[in-house]
């Protein structure tokens, strides 16, 4: 195990992610962890970056006992300053020049060779810097192992102990060889084993869930047909079987066959306790008459979801309360992924997997046990591709695991203008054809998100010698990594023509098919 002590940097989770890529098991704990209370002996310790200056009165500091353990330590950015601060504070100073962005590191030879930390990456290492403070001198008994043009002490190490500090961030992708440096530290210097797999993660999470929930505890969760909630549900089912209750609310704006597919994948194939609530009429009735107000559509979809889900939850709770084998429903499952966690967990923060007192709508007040539901988020440390791998591990079908993201309000924000049953059906059919052709062409995994929308304009066409005046379909397909910006996917003209022809032939009530050529920005990914 490599232990990462978190000082609150936005990149701390990336350290764990890179170690997992190297098949190394790691644990992350707040930087204030009392070392004598550790329940395991790490092979090495990484001190993360952080937003503070070691000079701040309220700056966090590690338990000084870590320097006496004889275990290798790597301090990154703030971690480097923390090491220097513990040795000799006068050497850290607020930098006169803040350094953000790319820089080049040169490994420095000491007694004729580069340090083990820079093995095979000694020359012109492109790195990413993000710091204000920097070292102005070496702490006693340290020497330099790397420099940049602006930081004479970009990397330092202790003369006799395996204590390292680096000013740059090896965990970010802007430091392409950073993973090699982390490997040099974790494997070469600490001797960590590279035997961690997603299968082991799965077993460990199952154990953690069982320990948390106890022998009789019950868990409730919503599934949407999306990747995250399905993976979570499969994991929870593996951990506690029948005591996990999944609810799928059909909001009338789901994709073609979506509810049926989720039912097969989760209930039939995996045996998950799933209730499908068909509330499509309720949702669609509430949406009637809403035009020119996408946020109102979102509110209606969100509030109606809570209303329907709450009712179902209370029903399940009542039924569950009579079961002799199980206790009350105390937990609510959520498929939060790491990128969804807006604030990085701070050094003052709680453990990464659980946060209590979460209020799911008004649900907590209404549940009979009166203490509210506690939130359980087993994917909280994972990135999307890791969640997908876990899903495969748990036996979810490849199509479900690889699915493009789908917004909570569903097709309602892809039908521009009024949402009616007929208009949703038109968009749904066109979307089905578009996605089917994309899959057939082998392009699905190259695209981040694709869908068909129905626009509000009516255009004229001739169909079967008759003039029609009907709405228009817009196709959208984008490539993105973070969904904050997106490029338009470059289909061949022949391909878009095939799609347009199929949609015109198979979907009634439309006059034309357009392809949206607007990137984000200035457009957004969804139409509304
Ligand atoms: P935009 O349209 O903002 O979309 O470029 C970025 C990403 O967010 C998704 N999205 C939503 N997801 N509820 C959701 O759950 C929403 O109201 C919502 N609006 C946009 C969108 O599908 C894309 O992946």
TrEMBL record:
Q: What is its EC number?
A: 6.3.5.2
Alphabetically sorted, this entry's keywords are:
ATP-binding, Glutamine amidotransferase, GMP biosynthesis, Ligase, Nucleotide-binding, Purine biosynthesis
Pathway connected to this protein? Purine metabolism; GMP biosynthesis; GMP from XMP (L-Gln route): step 1/1
Q: Which GO terms describe its cellular component?
A: cytosol
Which Pfam family, any one, appears in the UniProt record?
A: GMP_synt_C
Subcellular location(s): the record lists: Cytoplasm, Cytosol
- Output the superkingdom of the source species: Eukaryota
Q: Residues in domain GMPS ATP-PPase?
A: 196-403
HAMAP family (alphabetical): GMP_synthase (MF_00344)
Protein name per the record: GMP synthase [glutamine-hydrolyzing]
| Native source organism of the sequence | Calycina marina
């Amino acid at each position: 195990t490599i232990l990462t002590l978190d000082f609150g940097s936005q990149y701390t989770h990336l350290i764990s992610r890179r170690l997992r890529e190297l098949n190394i098991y790691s644990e992350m704990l707040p930087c204030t962890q009392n070392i004598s209370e550790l329940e395991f002996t790490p092979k090495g310790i990484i001190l993360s970056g952080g937003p503070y200056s070691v000079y701040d009165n309220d700056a966090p500091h590690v338990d000084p006992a870590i320097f006496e353990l004889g275990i290798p330590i790597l301090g990154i950015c703030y971690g480097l300053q923390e090491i220097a601060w513990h040795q000799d504070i006068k050497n850290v100073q607020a930098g006169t020049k803040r350094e953000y962005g790319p820089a080049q590191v040169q490994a420095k030879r000491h007694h004729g060779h580069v340090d083990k930390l820079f093995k095979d990456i000694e020359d012109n290492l492109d790195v990413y810097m993000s710091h204000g403070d920097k070292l102005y001198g070496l702490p006693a008994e340290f020497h330099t192992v790397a420099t940049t043009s602006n930081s004479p002490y970009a990397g330092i190490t202790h003369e006799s102990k395996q204590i390292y500090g680096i000013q740059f961030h090896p965990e970010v992708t802007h430091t392409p060889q950073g993973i090699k440096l982390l490997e040099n530290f974790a494997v070469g210097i600490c001797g960590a084993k590279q035997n961690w797999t997603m299968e082991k993660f799965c077993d460990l999470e199952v154990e953690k869930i069982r320990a948390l929930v106890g022998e009789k505890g019950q868990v409730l969760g919503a599934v949407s047909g999306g990747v995250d909630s399905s993976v979570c549900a499969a994991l929870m089912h593996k951990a506690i079987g029948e005591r996990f209750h999944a609810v799928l609310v059909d909001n009338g704006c789901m994709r073609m066959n979506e509810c049926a597919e989720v039912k097969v994948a989760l209930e039939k194939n995996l045996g998950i306790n799933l209730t499908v609530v068909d509330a499509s009429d309720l949702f669609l009735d509430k949406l009637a008459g809403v035009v020119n107000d996408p946020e109102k559509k979102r509110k209606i979809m969100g509030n109606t979801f809570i209303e329907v889900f709450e009712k179902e939850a209370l029903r399940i709770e009542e039924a569950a309360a009579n079961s002799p084998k199980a206790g009350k429903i105390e937990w609510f499952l959520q498929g939060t992924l790491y990128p969804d966690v807006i604030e990085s967990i701070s050094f003052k923060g709680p453990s990464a997997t659980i946060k209590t007192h979460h209020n799911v709508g008004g649900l907590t007040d209404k549940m009979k046990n009166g203490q509210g539901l506690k939130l359980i988020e087993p994917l909280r440390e994972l990135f999307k591709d890791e969640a997908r791998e876990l899903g495969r591990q748990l036996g979810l079908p490849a199509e479900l695991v690889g699915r493009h993201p789908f917004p909570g309000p569903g097709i309602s924000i892809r039908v521009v203008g009024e949402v009616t049953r007929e208009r949703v059906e038109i968009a749904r059919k066109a979307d089905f054809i578009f996605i089917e052709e994309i899959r057939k062409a082998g392009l699905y995994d190259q695209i981040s998100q694709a869908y068909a929308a129905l626009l509000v304009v009516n255009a004229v066409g001739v169909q079967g010698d008759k003039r029609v005046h009907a709405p228009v379909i817009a196709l959208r397909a984008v490539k993105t990594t973070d969904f904050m910006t997106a490029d338009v996917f470059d289909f061949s003209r022949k391909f878009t023509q095939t799609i347009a022809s199929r949609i015109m032939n198979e979907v009634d009530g439309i006059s034309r098919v357009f392809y949206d050529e607007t990137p984000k920005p200035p457009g957004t990914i969804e139409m509304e």
